[in-house]
Amino acid sequence: MSREIEEFIQTNVSNEVTSKLEPILKSARDLREVIRWKEDRAHQRAHILDAKYIFNYLAHKSKLGQEQIDLGLRAIDLHDTGYKFVEKGLISIEQHHEGSMFFASFLDPDPRVLRAIQHHVDDVLPANIEFWIRLFRDADRISALGYTGANRLARFWGFEDPQLDKLGDEEYIKRKLFCDLSSPMEPDGQNVNSRHERNAYNYFQGRVTPYLLDNDLYENFCHSMLIFLSRFNGESEGGVTFVEPVCEIANIYYRRRAYTNDAILIHPSYKDDNQIGSNVVHNVYQA
Question: How many helices and strands, by DSSP H and E, does the chain display?
Fold first, then answer.
């Protein structure tokens, strides 16, 4: 490990995380073993492929250079690997990005990649952040939306599908329940893929919604979904921005993916303490 990477880790990863993970990654053999560990289903291959597709699409629309595109794709591959350690009970969810940075320092020890991973959890990015890092973070946030995102979120609320879990990654992804790698609608309404998220929608209505309702989890699920929506739309009060919205080009091409969450949030089972119902949510979308 280079001195530059060592200093980055010392500065940006807590001693608590380092002390827990360093003994595990002390040899190449251990590294290969950790690579085989699984993240939770919500952060496995479907999410990575979805985020990479979104980033690549937006990067080309933004005319980013190939070097920046490659950096973004490399960062996406590793940005949630910290969940491997969360699943093992070694670190907390709030520390997952630190675990990802530490792991990435062995697999892709490039300070630019580590910096991107560091900032993918930021609600407000530094003003001077490179644009490709902003696109990377926004692609990660967009991936949480839509019915594919909703189906992955259900995993956090205990939803399981034993038959689906038996499938290999390739077949699991081919079902298009947790990622749908197709282009969004163009702003002029052209190139509409009428089947976009169709499989994910049917799965959510047929399997996920009954589970949430039967277990009295629909309201909690929608609170979580609203957090993801706030990371798309932004959140501010009194002129102070707590969560910045996604960048303009991400908003242009992926706002329709956020629209799909209307149907989830206006379900009769969801009424929050602040009376955020369908009209309020719809108005937020139209702003």
Answer: 18, 2
Q: Predicted confidence band at 108 (pLDDT cuts at 50, 70, 90)?
A: very high
- Residue 205 within any structural domain of the chain: yes
Check residue 188 and give its pLDDT.
Answer: 54
- CA dist., res. 49 & res. 153, Å (int): 16
Structural domain total, the chain:
1
C-beta separation of 97 from 79 below 8 A: yes
Q: Is the pLDDT of residue 98 over 90?
A: yes
> What's the rounded Cα separation, in Å, for the pair 143 and 228?
10
Cα–Cα distances in angstroms (integers) from residue 102 to residues 29, 92, 110, 159, 212, in the given order: 17, 14, 12, 30, 36
What is the bridge-based pairing of β-strands 240-243 and 235-237?
antiparallel
**Highest averaged pLDDT of the listed ranges 50-59, 159-168, 261-270:** 50-59
With contact defined as beta carbons under 8 Å apart, do 179 and 95 qualify?
no
Is position 32 within any domain? Answer: no
Angle between helices 96-107 and 28-36 (to 10 degrees): 130
36 in a domain, yes or no?
no
Name the burial class of residue 203, with classes exposed (0-12), middle (13-18) and buried (19+) by CB atoms within 10 angstroms of its CB: buried
Find the domain containing 260 and state its range: 133-286
65 belongs to a structural domain: no
